[in-house]
Structures are given as C-alpha cells and as structure tokens.
Amino acid sequence: MDFSWDALQAAHRGLTRLRERMADWAPADRDGLSPGAKELDARFRDAVADDLDMPEALKVLNEAVSADVSDGEKWTLLSTWDGVLGLDLELLAREGFEVSAEVQTLIDQRDEARRTGDFARADEIRTHLTEIGWEVMDLAEGTRVRPLR
C-alpha cells in the first residue's frame, strides 16, 4: 500500500462526515427495516463473510449513507455494522452539544431574515456563526447548527 498524509487526512475527513451524519439521524426499530435496508444489510454481511472483503463492505456502507431508506434505518445499519468496523460512528451523537442563548438568538434572527427575504442579513449572520465556530445548515424547517470540527 502507498501511504500519504493527504490520504490519511482525507480518510479522517470522511470518518468525521460519517460521524456527523450519525449525529443527525435517530435510531430505528431493527425489526422494522424496509426491503431496501434489508438488502443493504445482506450485502454488507455477505462482503464481511466473503473472506473479510472490506473494500466491498465499505462500498456498501457508502451506498447506505445516500440510499433511499429512512435516516433511522441508516442509523441502525451503520451502528450495527460498526461492531465489525470499529469506527465509533456514534461518537458525535453521544457527545452532543448545547447551543447557547446567544447562538440561538442569531439562529432565530437568521431564520427571520430568510423568511422576509433579507438574504444579505442572513448571509452576514451565517458568516458570523461560522467565525465563532458553528457549521450552519439550511433545512426546510429552518437553520440548524453544529460545532465545526
């Protein structure tokens, strides 16, 4: 194998993104998996059973992240598979974070600016939130933040 610091840093960024996604999802009932989620689970398990075909297992994991299954099913699949992978994908979900009153006020102001079409003000607030260490995500239900990592 060829080692490079760039490849190691890229792998770390990928792992951090997976952990952030897990923190955004909520667990689902394992017995209630959809056919699509069950198919992904079977493919992952088949890859691991096939002489630990980890490249294929990781391919299935990456497919699961963007698959057309519920976020809860994604959580269930990845947290189950993490028993084999050992990546501690639930790390950020366990750590959690609390939004201060000051940051919540900025979020509320940003949502109001977006509602009224004052996008310049919304962008200013986004920039300020980023400068003080928050990643800003625009969702249909409003602005959501999480600590920058």
Short description:
It is built from seven helices and two strands; from the N terminus they run H-H-H-H-H-H-H-E-E. It is mainly alpha-helical and 149 residues long. Strand 1 and strand 2 form a beta hairpin.
Structural commentary:
By secondary structure, the chain is mostly helical. Helices cover 64% and strands 8% of the residues. It has 7 helices and 2 strands; from the N terminus they run H-H-H-H-H-H-H-E-E. The chain has a two-stranded antiparallel ribbon. Helix 2 (35-49) packs antiparallel against helix 3, helix 2 (35-49) packs parallel to helix 4 and helix 6 (101-115) packs antiparallel against helix 7 (119-131).
Overall 3D form = globular
Secondary-structure element sequence?
Answer: HHHHHHHEE
Low-confidence stretches: none
Contiguous helical run count = 7
Strand order in the sheet with the most strands:
1-2
Helix amount: 55-70%
The mean pLDDT is: 86
Search tags:
two-stranded antiparallel ribbon; 64% helix; 149 residues; 8% strand; mainly alpha
How do the helices and strands line up, and which of them pair or pack?
Elements: H1 5-24, H2 35-49, H3 54-66, H4 71-85, H5 91-95, H6 101-115, H7 119-131, E1 134-139, E2 142-147
Antiparallel strand pairs: 1-2
